[in-house]
Write a structure and sequence with these properties.
Helices cover 21% and strands 28% of the residues. By secondary structure, it is α+β, with helices and mostly antiparallel strands. The strands form 3 sheets. Strands 1-10-9-2-8 form a 5-stranded mixed sheet. Strands 4-3-5-6-7 form a 5-stranded mixed sheet.
């Protein structure tokens, strides 16, 4: 177990010397709060997939690294940008992440679909932007590419009814978009996530060693969230997570219950790795 500690130590030192890839500037969701006026907004299911940005020639991760994607997967994608999720099905996030993190020769890529929710930098409101891809797909049908369906939210009761249905079917939640809002990047008040619990993403910076029954393993993850706030997450980790923790630089998802006066998530609990830290090679021939 001591060797594990040394490996973690040297991994940390190595990553300090490596300059990470520059992340692609993307649209980020704001959490929906009761009382917000969302009548007439567009709602869609929040797919539990791996974020993927098509820049017209490469399929990039949220960190800006090209996926090792098979040529057939991208060869007929449009010459304009897309933003969406690499996805298999509800409840299949871990399998999806495992597949898209592998080499492009892996036949499991045939299980992956690209579900698009945005056409960046196109003009008009959301439906107009998405129609640009829909028109393209009519001329160039791709079985693995589709637009995530949007429906009009009548009121809060309608929103909660839809949320209950999605969660009961094993879904994660909903996304609300203001239909007339132009495309934007960064945290947006025109794009909301709707869930039954609070969650957030953070970057793993390091580890705190375990004590007692966790001696020789990881006791907690040091995490940094948006705004540069840092804290430790020690709950929600399985024994396997403690023996082989998320790599430094990983983007993880955690649950929490409100924020402290300093803006630190309270009672944070690890859920899963959202994205691996290391760049992957681009597709081959």
């Amino acid at each position: 177990m001591e060797s594990k500690g040394y490996r973690l130590h040297w991994l940390f030192l190595l990553l300090l010397l490596v300059t990470p890839a520059t992340g692609t500037e993307l649209l980020l969701l704001t959490k929906y709060r009761p009382g917000m006026v969302i009548d007439g907004w567009l709602m869609s299911e929040k797919l539990d997939g791996v974020r993927a940005y098509w820049d017209g020639s490469r399929l990039l991760s949220r960190q800006g690294n090209p996926f090792a994607v098979p040529d057939w997967f991208i060869q007929d994608l449009p010459p304009f940008e897309l933003d969406g999720e690499l996805w298999i099905a509800r409840g299949q996030f871990e399998q999806t992440l495992s597949i898209v993190s592998r080499n492009y020769h892996d036949p499991e890529w045939r299980r992956i679909t690209y579900r698009v929710f945005e056409v960046p930098h196109a003009s008009g409101g959301l439906l107009t932007r998405l129609h640009k891809l829909e028109a393209y797909l009519k001329e160039h049908p791709l079985e693995h590419v589709s637009v995530i369906p949007q429906s009009v939210c009548r009121d809060t009761a309608h929103l909660m009814e839809k949320l209950d249905a999605v969660v009961a079917a094993g879904g994660e939640g909903l996304v609300l978009r203001e239909p007339g809002s132009p495309y934007e990047t960064g945290r947006s008040r025109h794009a909301l996530k709707v869930k039954r619990y609070d969650d957030m993403e953070g970057r793993v910076l390091g580890y705190r060693p375990g004590k007692g029954k966790f001696k020789g393993m990881v006791g907690a993850l040091q995490v940094e969230i948006e705004g540069g706030k840092r804290f430790y997450i020690g709950t929600g980790l399985s024994d396997q997570d403690r023996r082989d923790p998320p790599a430094i630089g990983s983007l993880i998802t955690f649950r929490y219950h409100g924020l402290s006066s300093a803006g630190i998530p309270r009672f944070a609990s690890f859920m899963r790795v959202r994205e691996q830290p290391s760049p992957v090679p681009s597709s081959g021939q």
